[in-house]
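Chain and conformation:
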Amino acid sequence: MNTQNFIVTPELFASREKRFGTYILDIIGYYILAVLIGVGIGLLASIGIEAPLNYLTDLDSLENLVLTLIIYFTYYILFETLLHRTLGKFITQTKVVMEDGSKPGVLDIILRTLCRLIPFEFFSFLGEKGRGWHDSMSNTYVVDIKKFEAKKRTQLDLDLIGVTSQTDSV
């Protein structure tokens, strides 16, 4: 799609209710990833590769925090970079886009994820505009997919008005 004339407008934003639901579902998604990693380490230990399990059992508080942050960053960066949606966004039918409707780049996603670590940031999307600090600081938007796709189709149709195909000009 030519994004030259497309702009994400507030009516496309995901509702506060969807944003809250997405947040809760993403917490669950994070824990699912952490459990899967734990199961994988347990499976490795069951076949005799015990070093990862031994390492985990010997973690101090700081190392545990670092590991938690690695899993946290992996969850958001992996999903939002590859799919532009987390587990929560899949379920709530929302996705992350730039102002022109294009997909965010890796650096945009990394910045979004870093901004999520700001204390009480998860309440910021409950404001009047429905955009969280991690959205505004990374210049990204979380949009309702159905509304977004409908506006993209309308914009494309408008862009095609008056454009003649090459076969028409022959």
The longest strand covers residues 94-98. The chain is about 55% helix and 5% strand. Residues 16-46 form the longest helix (31 residues).
